[in-house]
Amino acid sequence: MSQNAVNRGTARLSLARFGELGLLAVLVALFLVFTFSSKYFFTPKNLSNVLGQISLTMVSAVGLSLLVISGEVDISIGSLQAVVALPLVLVMNATGSFWLGVLPALAVGVLIGIINGLLVTRLKINSLIVTLGMYYLLRGFVYLVTGKVPISDQSGKDLFFMVGNGKLFRFLPYMALLMIVIVVVFMYVLRHTTYGRRLYAVGGSPEVARAVGINPERLKLSAFILCSLLSTVSAILLASRLSSANHMAGQGFEFQVVAAIVLGGVSLAGGVGNLLGALIGVLILGLIQNGLSLMNVGTQYQLVITGAIIILAVAVDELKKRHG
Amino acid sequence: MNENDVILEVRKINKEFPGVKALNGVDLILRRGEVQALVGENGAGKSTLIKILAGVYRKDAGEILFEGTPLELHSAHDSLQRGIKVVFQELALVPQLSVAENVFLESFPLKRGGAIDWRAMNGKTQEILSSINLDLNPSRKVSSLTISQQQMVEIARALSHEAKVVIMDEPTSALTPNEVRSLFEVIRRLKALGIGILYVTHKLEEVFELCDRVTVFRDGQLVSSRAVPETNTNEVVTDMVGRAITTLFPRTHSVRGEPVLTVRGLSTDKKLKGVSFEVHAGEVVGIFGLLGAGRTELARAIFGLDPAIAGELELRGRKLRLGSTSHSAHAGLGLLTEDRKGEGLVLQMSVAQNMTLPSVREFARFGLIRAKEENSRSQEYVQRLAIKTPSLRHKVEYLSGGNQQKVLLARWLMKKLEVIILDEPTRGIDVGAKAEIHKLIDELAMAGLAVMVLTSEMPELLGVSDRILVMSGGRITGEFGREEATQEKILAAAIA
Asked: What is the pLDDT of residue A55?
């Protein structure tokens, strides 16, 4: 038996994986369709733009995937994006330092993750409910603080501008580089570390996890924190793109991320899924939005099409499972 | 016997799962009023066959003749409608509903107009229950019944459908001796009613007490089918394993070392009342108790799965934190839980990953798992316990019940431990593997572990233990050395 048989085995056997081939085909098909239906699609400028968009989503999707694999969910990540941008921009404006702004942003992000995590694991409240509350609460807080007026970046820091807008060789966004690093690191974590193994175990069955000496609460708390932390990273990228702390930032973002990872085979029931699938899910949704916009398809149809694709993909996956 | 007596005939049935031939050309005949035992090691094909008859699985090839006419089963509903009722170990009852509602779940008696005719339903249920000598109020909620009573409700449900074949899957595995007796009585009533019964079991005593015919499966094939009066235990066991079994319970003489686990005044709010004892290195302590005596609760409280309200635990003189499984496991405690379903396997994970769940840190450096080592260790235990799996990467979900049990056992046997607590280590495990497990228990003690074995099987208890603690009412009511222990003394202490 070869070296990584155990780990590769899970990936190979997971139903999500069978789904991945199908998803990959969908992705390629979409790519071809858009290439032939719009002359603006397959251009360096547009591809570079899509890549940036996708990176924003994917960084957060990595965090949410970890959390969902552990059996919980967080729908406050969109509101979190608006919240953490406040200390970022305010401190940056006050100090003139990008890094001094990043620190409190990360701290606030982690704090929100801890609060979500503790409410879920200590009080045993359903994570959908806890983070639904947090979704409203954080957004309202941002409205209160900002008076619904964006706080723009006055530091004029080049570095802040570059993280969200800079491109390598005028094509590859720095955001995409960061995203790739994050994806690769956490892919490795999920597949080859004891932490990853324990996440799957806890998501698969918290009772079994406890019976083999894993503390499910502590692990879930850590996943909440990682999810918030990575969403904060994507919030910083978003703030850079908007060059402000915007009270509308991240609105609807949470559902895009949930939709993308579910599309990619990460099961909301926990214990199933991987980041390759999540990435393909993010790519598919990103391409659909971009391609349809380029084809001048109205928002109303974009919403209908996106919704239909999500339900279709999950339905196909479910049917596959049933027929083994 | 008359040809017309044949009620169910299975001809050349095949069934394949990914990587496994579960049934291979099986022929079987069941007659009216016959109790036929199906025995065989885990993964031999018994469960697959009854699931096909239940309409849960579809056969790949072959024929099922029911009263001489071919039968195609597509669902559990189908098979019940045709008069075949399977009582699985996991009972298919709706706990929130009453006995009568469960009995008539598929077809409530209706009044004209479509409303449920409660009076008729309760009346008919009462009739059915008394036909098998059962005293149970039809309007009682099923959730308030014991497992044994729930089984009876399932049987009553079969009768309400005028079932002609009743299939039972290890019905006694969760019953007390008294309940087993009343179940047997009911089965004899069914037999008298002319119902044919297929009785899946691991317990050969039951075969010889209850059944008319014993049919042995091995590796997906039917190897023998004999009339019970014309055979004996040895013959059946030899058919089951394909070889003669000689060594049951090999307890080599062991040297008792220093105390490893010290339990002082351990109490829980529900059951345990100040339990104190010690387990020494190299010692196997058997713990016995009747249902509700607190055996399992003791094991769970020690490992930290249940909270303790008072008491102290020491491992080699170091105090153990109560109520934390991660702390216990880290300190070197292991517990094979009695609840194999809820606290057993992570179904989405592979065989190897399930086996190494508690020990994965032993194969990891800085949190990185060394897959090579994990594989070779897992492979070792797959071989030792003869776990039938196409590969280590196979999803554990697709293994047969008995092989899943072995995976659970391997999980703790392969971890480096100081104390191992095994709650019913051989439940649901076939004869051949049982002997291997007893040998492993012996080896663990020889290697210096403190071993606790909780078992309700008297021969196993007497066979593997160096010392026996008997529990009753949440306390220890008896302690016997290997030499002085007898079945009578133990039972006397257990009902004290």
From this structure: 94
Does A166 reside within a domain? yes
Contact residues on chain A for B346, CB-CB shorter than 8 A: 200-201, 204-205, 208-209, 271
Which residue in chain A is spatially nearest to B329 when comparing CA positions?
A: A213
Contacts of B273 (CB under 8 A, 6+ apart): B267, B473, B474, B475
Check CB contact under 8 Å for B326 and A205. Answer: no
Look up residue A39 and give its DSSP letter: T
Tokens 């109560």 found at:
B322
For B259-494, CATH gives 3.40.50.300
Look at residue B161 in the predicted model and tell me its pLDDT: 82
Structure tokens at A17: 């994986």
Angle CA A313–A184–A134, to nearest 5: 65
Please say whether the structural domain B3-241 has been given the CATH code 3.40.50.300: yes
> Mean pLDDT of all residues in chain B?
86
At residue B250, the pLDDT reads: 62
The ranges of chain A with pLDDT < 70 are 1-20, 317, 320-324
Average pLDDT in the B135-149 region? 84
Give the domain range for residue A139: 16-322
Q: Which of A191, A212, A221, A272 to mutate to test the interface with B (most CBs of B within 10 A)?
A: A212
At B3, the pLDDT band (50, 70, 90 cuts) reads low
In a domain, A6, yes or no: no
Between CA A303 and CA A313 the distance in angstroms is 16
Q: Do A208 and B325 touch (CB under 8 A)?
A: no
Residues in B touching A211 (Cβ below 8 Å): 305, 325, 335, 337, 343-344
A-proximal residues of B, 13-52, CB under 8 Å: 18
- Nearest Cα residue in chain B from A195: B367
CATH of the domain at A60: 1.10.3470
Distance CA A309, CA A312 (A): 5
Q: Label residue B66 exposed, middle or buried (CB < 10 Å: 0-12, 13-18, 19+).
A: buried
Show the DSSP H helices in A14-76 as ranges.
15-37, 44-69
In the prediction, which pLDDT does B120 show?
A: 86
Question: What is the structure's pLDDT at A165?
Answer: 84
Query: Chain B 356-385, CB below 8 Å of chain A: which residues?
Result: 357-358, 360-361, 364, 367-369, 371-372, 374-375, 378-379
Instruction: Give the residue from chain B lying closest to A204, CA to CA.
Output: B346
Query: How many domains does one find in chain A?
Result: 1
Sketch the domain layout of chain B as residue ranges: 3-241, 259-494
Q: Judge if B3-241 and B259-494 fold alike in CATH terms.
A: yes
Strand segments, DSSP code E, in B181-339 are 196-200, 213-218, 221-227, 259-267, 275-280, 284-289, 310-315, 318-319, 333-336
User: What is the ipTM metric for this complex?
Assistant: 0.79
Q: Does B324 touch chain A (CB under 8 A)?
A: yes
In a domain, A8, yes or no: no
pTM over 0.80: no
